[in-house]
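Field: COMPLEX_INPUT
Field: COMPONENT_COUNT = four
Field: RESIDUE_TOTAL = 772
Field: MODE = joint
Values follow.
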Amino acid sequence: MAEKDVKKKTSSGAPGGGRREVRPTKQQPSRQVSIKDIARLARVSHPTVSRALQNSPLVNPATAAKIRKIAEAAGYRPSAVARGLVTRRTRTVGLVVTTVADPFASAVACGIEQAANDHGYAVFLANSNADAEHERKVVQALAERRVDGIIVTSSRVGSDYLPMLAQLNVPMVLVNDQYPGEFVHSVMIANEEGSRAATEYLIGMGHRRVAYVGDRSGYQTETERLEGYKRALAKAGIEFDAKLAVHGDGRPEGAAEAMEALLQLAEPPTAVCCYNDMTALGAMRAIRARGLRVPEDLSVTGFDDLFFAEYLEPPLTTVRQPMRRMGEMAMENLLKLMSGEDSVAQVKVGAELIVRKSTGRVGMKPGPQMRGTGGTQGLGAGRRNG
Amino acid sequence: MAEKDVKKKTSSGAPGGGRREVRPTKQQPSRQVSIKDIARLARVSHPTVSRALQNSPLVNPATAAKIRKIAEAAGYRPSAVARGLVTRRTRTVGLVVTTVADPFASAVACGIEQAANDHGYAVFLANSNADAEHERKVVQALAERRVDGIIVTSSRVGSDYLPMLAQLNVPMVLVNDQYPGEFVHSVMIANEEGSRAATEYLIGMGHRRVAYVGDRSGYQTETERLEGYKRALAKAGIEFDAKLAVHGDGRPEGAAEAMEALLQLAEPPTAVCCYNDMTALGAMRAIRARGLRVPEDLSVTGFDDLFFAEYLEPPLTTVRQPMRRMGEMAMENLLKLMSGEDSVAQVKVGAELIVRKSTGRVGMKPGPQMRGTGGTQGLGAGRRNG
DNA sequence: GTTGCTACCGCAAACGTGTGCATCGCGGGG
DNA sequence: CCCCGCGATGCACACGTTTGCGGTAGCAAC
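Field: COMPLEX_OUTPUT
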């Protein structure tokens, strides 16, 4: 065997002389340039380089400038992993979503990434596949990576995290926790108020038989939105009819099936309040498949206000979640937690009903409908323990 | 259920007696349990613990079992950062997308995350905001994190990475590179073939005045798709009319504006081939706003086959990109590169025309249109340098 | 009894950075 | 002349792992 690039420690003589001439026999990873390399080049100790690069006042401005110049020229990039080891802070957060392919999750993720990036944090992305067990797994994995904090959206675990977290010792904030009961730190949308507003709007348009298409998973947002629907009915003196409350799977396919069942009822609804926009997507397809029109024959509302909602035909009346903003808020809360502040707790963000053209007066005639001006109303905003 | 097993450090002798007794002036992060802790508990050296935990044959199965049990009970989680420092491999990849909120990007990201997770890799997510300068920045940041590899989708930098990469010394694969010219490792969709197929399909339906709504950014996918459109025209003996090729911004808003211009032409088109589904979304809205119908008055095609395409009214005829699969392929290629293999290069994946109901024969009568069976055709698949 | 082999296990040195503390040169005040 | 202070820098250690290598039993073969 040829010798393996003997590491010579020639301290004083010719520091940059015979560079490590890696021979291309095997692709030698050609060690990254380290802080010691540029210390040698600058003829100072490596701590001085470290200090110079982080603008410490302890180092002479002149030498600092010189060091920075050399580091720049050598293309030196400090190793975040070595730094993380000694400082015990990685400036990294973990983000777990059900799946990035979900438009709600990706919108929230976008806000989080933005805020994280602005504060010098990098974000680990992980999918939970909407499975509690897998979610726990990826959280554990993130903990092994020594992330400084964790955000999980639509958690299936929720307050069950408490024992694990006590051991892991890493702050966590939840976005739209799906687990019944309250988690310590979370940002939640006003599900009940939003769903209630949508239903009340439908009732206000004269509808008496308004249905609800939910998510059979039975998680927290589902139960809250269903509750909002029921409250609106109760307030209007309309008795809740279990036959009008059906359940899809939160996705268009399942929603379409559920909607079909609704349409086959002896006395079908004239309006339907959907669990979310994806559900509305499927519901509208099922409605069209029966040769019915929205909103002339049937009014439809959604929840989320995903990007495509306003481009549907007809544009979808829906309850808006400020998804990006919610992501930012989650990140801001996490930043506080990571810096030691412990004040912030649950924050509940207001939902906003966006009226478009998928809703109309009951029994409305086909034709040029009124120009919906997109009236909005804020709902249920507020925060506790702020 | 396993009982809670309180963490007791009072093993026996006092090896950990007067350990560095840091005074708790500031909130002490309560040091994570390390490999040495459990080495002490198991009365072995910490290297033995290390080997036991990675199932090394060098350690006695009995002691290994004992060690694992103790580690489990103590809730020990090895530090990936410490490991990364010594092994010089972080088992981490960086993923940079224009923005996660983009449905195309998030679909690709989903495939990547999946494949990465399957192989024990974690993924750093970063947004480039579709800006070349920012993209370079985040790639640098990822390099500082010592990721083992990088994937960037819709790169604005492309082969300009070469010098930087030579210095960073980290493998990179591009998905749908937007920079003219070829990058070393990439997975690309067959843009030209796909766009050409869509246009040919329209022509086959009798359309002669078929327009193109592009993306004014003028990046690579745009030019290729435009080229495919032109080729189809040429093949059919239709002269390219510059007035029929307009440019939005790849998003619904800009596309709607561009489409309006098209509709105000003295001789408006009877069909329009859109740069992507988002563009089609805007185009269709603009068409409806003029009181025209799709496909009776105007046929529309998209590109991507985003999840909502089949739920539009009418369902969108579009060119499918297997986005998840492309993400997986990118990750698989990256895995090979990271393991030292250097064979894989550009792979071009076939596009598939999905015929739905947004397209019809020119001058078709309103009414129940034929049941589009969703005929498909694979296009332009292949790989080079495999 | 020496040798050699095998199966385990510990020592020590890394990996690249941050940081408390000692050191050093030097100017000024006593 | 001595001492003190101060600004600038280096020393040494720590962070939590992995890994090459040397050591030590136990045992069999000679």
